[in-house]
Design goal:
- The protein is mostly helical and about 240 residues long.
- The chain has helices at about 5-35, 40-50, 55-65, 70-80, 85-95, 100-110, 115-120, 130-150, 160-180, 185-200, 205, 210-230, 235-240.
- α1 (about 5-35) packs parallel to α3 (about 55-65).
Length: about 240
């Protein structure tokens, strides 16, 4: 590994530490859900290692507990995790044009909400090894938190579990506040997203659509509008 990649890899590991700690706390509640679905510690931990998605895992464990069919699980997982397709497309625009297809596929496979946040917030073109470093630190925290939740979840009181789940929202806030403060366009889009999400949840017809589908619709519409109205100029040195 050349010095530049090594430096970015270590920086990604450093930035992944708070995400890992947040994942560990939140995943305890996820482990409790896995335990209630009848999963063993090994099964739940392996699920978190292979599927790094809180909503997707909650959906999966809930369907398993309800003895749902494989088809139902597959369809709901596809819907719950469809947003990662959008995140992967957005990150592909952040990568240098010289980035190989292998690195693009790997980043698209391992991306999570929080990893996407710190990766897309990089001021320069994204170096894949930065994302790899963050993933290497963050994912074990998610898996270990799930394991602890399965083993000790039944001992924790309900209020403690509810309090732990708040940490996920704290991570989201920490991700989008800094770029929103630096860029008025980003700040305005964040406010518009909040307002639109609230409105969509109150409009009778739209409120009947699943939250995952509503999130996808809002993400596509708002992102498309922002790209048309406030396009990001190409880096001339990268385009050359």
């Amino acid at each position: 590994m050349n010095p530049s990649r090594k430096r970015m890899f270590l920086k990604g590991m450093r930035d992944g530490i708070p995400i890992s700690l947040g994942y560990f706390a939140v995943a305890i509640a996820l482990g409790i859900a896995a335990r209630e679905a009848g999963m063993t510690p090994w099964q739940a931990t392996l699920s978190s290692l292979l599927l790094n998605a809180s909503a997707g895992e909650y959906v999966g464990f809930t369907l398993i507990a309800a003895n749902s069919s494989y088809i139902e699980v597959i369809v709901m997982e596809a819907v719950a995790n469809a947003r990662y397709l959008l995140m992967s497309c957005a990150l592909s625009q952040k990568l240098s044009s010289k980035t190989s297809m292998l690195h693009r596929l790997l980043i698209g496979t391992v991306v999570t909400d929080e990893i996407f946040g710190i990766s897309i917030a990089r001021p320069e073109k994204l170096e894949p090894f930065y994302t790899y470093g963050a993933i290497l630190v963050a994912v074990p925290g998610w898996a270990l938190g799930t394991l602890l939740g399965v083993v000790l979840g039944s001992v924790l009181p309900g209020r403690a579990v509810s309090a732990l789940s708040v940490s996920l929202f704290g991570m989201f806030i920490a991700i989008f506040i800094p770029p929103a403060r630096r860029n008025r366009v980003v700040g305005g889009l964040v406010l518009i997203s909040f307002a639109a999400s609230f409105a969509f949840g109150r409009i009778p017809f739209l409120a009947q659509i699943s939250s995952g589908i509503r999130t996808i619709i809002l993400t596509v519409v708002i992102s498309l509008a922002a790209a048309i109205l406030f396009p990001v100029k190409e880096d001339k040195t990268d385009a050359a």
